[in-house]
Specification:
By secondary structure, the protein is an alpha+beta fold. The protein has two domains: 135 residues, no CATH class; 165 residues, no CATH class. It contains eleven helices and twelve strands. InterPro entries: RepA_C (IPR006881).
């Protein structure tokens, strides 16, 4: 196996002019993270552990039931909204924000904001809401309904000592208040005297709220948002951040087939070609992740991926010493 070092990072673009804007942002984010850690930069975020170990689909699965598997852990998402299963970039950004708000506020009630424009700008990093059925506002609205209408089951079949998931047929949200009377909007702009009284909001179910605050996975929101051009890279980042937080010794090779079951259900059945296609996509995503998290020590080879003890991307808070 060969270790991927930061200086071996290749983004598979031949000239500076060919580099997409979001990839340039990945590189810029790397320097910003080097200059200031997440806590001091105000970009400390969190993700629900269940959606880090196994993830949402990247493309519309066009089914009402979606399954992921990671060893003894199985995640099932059931559509509760007629549109289907949440997929792609928007539900990931939404879930990182909702999980972060739940941890910060220690409350299952999450305020979604006064206007769609502000939400898209401040949370989703989108500069224009766009109009019409294909506008970004409408796409976000669709994914909000899919995400917060979903029913999830997180089931772990390992030993009793390691059992840590009790999410059985749990709604992500118990209540969602949206105003989608406007085609391009989720939120109706408010008058100043109405602000704070009529905000759209979501109330997380107790089971999912407890998962968010009892087992949060800390992430750097700058890195997570910078990787939004690739949902797979977003997932690899949160997974690596989680795994490196407790990796104390060299791991056994994580074979490509199980990795595909965890990350790459969009590649179809476990044929040799599907595994090769997934491996190619995974390595491309991994190189992007290492641009924002270069401390992660990873070896890749024909047998799979090996994780080596690495500095966590989010360092634990300093110990507070007292005189007594």
């Amino acid at each position: 196996m060969a270790a991927i070092e930061p200086n071996q990072l290749t983004l598979d673009y031949r000239s500076g002019d060919a580099v997409p804007t979001w990839v340039r942002e990945v590189i810029d984010t790397h320097f910003a993270i080097e200059a200031e850690d997440a806590r001091h930069a105000g970009s400390l975020g969190f993700m629900a552990r269940a959606l880090v170990i196994a993830t949402m689909p990247y493309k519309d699965p066009r089914t009402d039931v979606f399954k992921r598997q990671n060893g003894d852990f199985r995640l099932r998402i059931i559509a509760g909204y007629e549109g289907g299963i949440p997929y792609g970039i928007y539900p990931r950004l939404l879930m990182s924000w909702v999980s972060t708000e739940a941890v910060r506020r220690q409350s299952p009630e999450i305020q979604l904001g006064d206007t769609l424009r502000a939400f898209l700008r401040d949370v989703m990093d989108l500069r224009s809401s766009g109009g019409g059925a294909r506008g970004s506002g409408s796409r976000v609205a669709e994914q909000v309904k899919r995400l917060f209408g979903s029913l999830i089951t997180a089931h772990y079949t390992g030993s009793q000592q390691q059992r840590g998931f009790v999410l059985r047929n749990v709604l992500i949200a118990e209540n969602l208040q949206l105003n989608d009377a406007e085609l391009i909007g989720l939120w109706t702009p408010q008058h100043a005297h109405e602000a704070g009284r009529w905000q759209s909001q979501v109330r997380l179910s107790n089971g999912f709220f407890r998962e968010c605050i009892d087992n949060p996975v800390p992430i750097d929101l700058r890195a997570y948002k910078a990787l939004r051009g690739s949902p797979l890279a977003m997932d690899v980042y949160t997974w690596l951040t989680y795994r490196m937080s407790y990796t104390q010794r060299r791991s056994r090779p994580i074979r490509w087939e199980p990795l595909m079951m965890q990350f790459g259900c969009d590649y179809g059945s476990e044929t040799n070609q599907a595994v090769r296609d997934f491996k190619k996509a995974f390595l491309k995503a991994l190189k992007l992740v290492l641009a924002v998290y270069p401390q992660a020590r990873v070896e890749v080879g024909d047998a799979g991926v090996v994780l080596l003890p690495s500095r966590p991307h989010i360092l634990p808070p300093p110990v507070q010493h007292t005189l007594f």
